[in-house]
Specification:
4 helices, flat
Length: 89
């Protein structure tokens, strides 16, 4: 019985720096500035969800992990683009 190899790229943690951490923590506290809110959301979509990454890997398991991460990001983007005026009618 063979074992599937896991790609390090598929399971990589999102890159972050001090500004990203500060923005996420301020967002959690509820006192993030406009800039911090935008930075936190950008980090979530880019790094945590991997929306700009290629989602297909040699391992089906790794592909499924990457597609799951991207699905979350796609749901967030969908909500960001909904026109509230038409929804309220």
């Amino acid at each position: 019985m063979g074992t599937a190899k896991t790609s390090k790229a598929a399971l990589k943690l999102g890159a972050y720096d001090e500004g990203d951490v500060g923005a996420m923590q301020a967002l959690q506290r509820g006192d993030a500035s406009d800039h911090q809110q935008k930075r936190a959301l950008e980090w979530i979509l880019r790094e945590a969800c991997g929306l700009q990454d290629w989602a297909y890997y040699p391992s089906e398991r790794d592909t499924n992990v990457a597609l799951g991460r991207q699905f979350v990001g796609q749901q967030i983007v969908k909500l960001l683009k909904i026109n509230l005026r038409t929804m309220r009618r």
